[in-house]
């Protein structure tokens, strides 16, 4: 358990909203198929901005929401599987954009696929000694999608979410994180160009591939496993809010039924954003924060799963103050 609390959240999205109807003009699909199989109705695609641009916008919003002096930030971790380039890290780009080059900061990226933000939050919580930590999940998945593969391109979107954390003895976060080292390619993306490219650019490179059914099966086991692990012997009913990875509404319905936990107490925005991988949990967190749904003395569980396979959860006890 770490005594840390979140003091501000922010988000950003790709600038172009693409509806299911728009996708009907790109691949052989239908609004009806996408909506009933996934719950997704639209997603945001970034045609001109890369991952760092979205990360910087989300970070600036989180800093503003926290009302802190950015020069007191001591740690920046960006979870991403779609960085702008191999090096430098997106985290260092965020540091530079915030004008923090001369400050006493450690900044680095981390890749745990869609569980990335949870892994980054755990890492930041254990590393942070003083000042503030900036934890970001940011993706431009559109650049690794095959826009001719209807089984994947309809699912994902571009965006970023961020939060600012500080140490606080009155608040706590309990983490659970696991990786299976499953190399069966259920969710896989090989070597590829990291340059921003847009729809249907045909190059000799590999795109994201997925065995949807296998991932679905894994997700419905992994999410309850992680939630039970962070709740230990405590009743699931005592969770005030679950903020899950936004992959598929049917997965969340399954988890809700299996755990007898009401859907109304889950933050769900995949209908608008689609699956933004490591950005999905912090975007949903930022939305809950903006809507005032995160208050004092609450138990909140963040939970996710992703390629690798990776999965995990974070139980947040907000304590006496708002988060
Ligand atoms: O962050 C983790 C990311 N991934 C996930 O969470 C994915 C988890 N899995 C899923 O969400 C679901 O498995 C999918 C939504 C991806 C697919 O749903 P499904 O019910 O498992 O469908 P399926 O893959 O078994 O495909 C059923 C049919 C196939 O046609 P036939 O072979 O039955 O004729 C597909 O070719 O649906 C077809 N299909 C589509 N049809 C219209 C696949 N994609 C599409 C599409 N539009 N976009």
What does it look like?
- This protein has 323 residues and is of the alpha/beta class.
- 30% of the residues lie in helices and 25% in strands.
- It is built from 10 helices and 13 strands.
- The chain has helices at 20-23, 31-38, 51-66, 90-97, 116-127, 150-153, 212-231, 249-259, 270-273, 280-290, and strands spanning 4-13, 16-19, 42-45, 73-79, 106-110, 132-140, 158-167, 172-179, 187-188, 209-210, 241-244, 299-306, 310-317.
- The strands form 4 sheets. A 5-stranded mixed β-sheet has the order 1-7-6-4-5, sandwiched between helices. A 4-stranded mixed β-sheet has the order 8-13-12-11, sandwiched between helices. A two-stranded antiparallel sheet has the order 2-3.
- Helix 3 (51-66) crosses helix 4 and helix 7 packs across helix 8.
- The longest helix is centred in the last third of the chain and has 20 residues, at 212-231.
- The radius of gyration is 18 Å and the shape is globular.
- The two termini are 16 Å apart.
- The chain binds oxa(dethia)-CoA.
- Residues 29, 33-34, 37-38, 114, 150-151, 154, 210, 212-213, 215-216, 219, 247-248, 275, 306 line the site of oxa(dethia)-CoA.
């Amino acid at each position: 358990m770490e005594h840390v609390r979140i003091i501000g959240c922010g988000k950003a999205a790709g600038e172009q909203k693409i509806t299911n109807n728009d996708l009907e003009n790109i691949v052989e699909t239908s609004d009806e198929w996408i909506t009933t199989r996934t719950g997704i109705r639209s997603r945001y695609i970034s045609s001109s901005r890369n991952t760092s641009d979205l990360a910087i916008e989300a970070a600036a919003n989180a800093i503003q929401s926290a009302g802190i002096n950015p020069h007191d930030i001591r740690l920046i971790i960006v979870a991403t599987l779609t960085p702008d380039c191999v090096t430098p890290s997106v985290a260092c780009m965020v540091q530079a954009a915030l004008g923090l080059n001369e400050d006493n900061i450690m900044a680095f990226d981390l890749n745990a696929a869609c569980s990335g933000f949870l892994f980054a939050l755990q890492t930041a919580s254990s590393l942070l000694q003083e000042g503030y930590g900036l934890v970001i999940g940011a993706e431009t998945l559109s650049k690794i999608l095959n826009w001719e593969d209807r089984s994947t391109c309809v699912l994902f979107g571009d965006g970023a979410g961020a939060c600012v954390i500080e140490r606080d003895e009155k608040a706590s976060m309990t983490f659970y994180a696991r990786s299976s080292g499953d190399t069966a390619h259920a969710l896989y993306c090989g070597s590829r160009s990291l340059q921003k490219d847009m729809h249907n650019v045909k190059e000799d490179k590999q795109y994201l591939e997925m065995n949807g059914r296998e991932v679905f099966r894994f997700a419905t086991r992994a999410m309850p496993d992680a939630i039970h692990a962070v709740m230990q012997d405590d009743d699931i009913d005592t969770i005030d809010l679950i903020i899950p990875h936004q992959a598929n509404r049917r997965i969340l319905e399954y988890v809700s039924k299996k755990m007898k936990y009401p859907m109304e107490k889950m933050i769900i925005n995949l209908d608008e954003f689609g699956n933004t991988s490591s950005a999905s949990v912090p975007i949903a967190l930022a939305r809950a924060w903006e809507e005032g749904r995160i208050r004092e003395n609450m138990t909140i569980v963040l939970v996710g799963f992703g390629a690798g396979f990776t999965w995990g959860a974070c139980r947040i006890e907000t304590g006496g103050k708002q988060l």
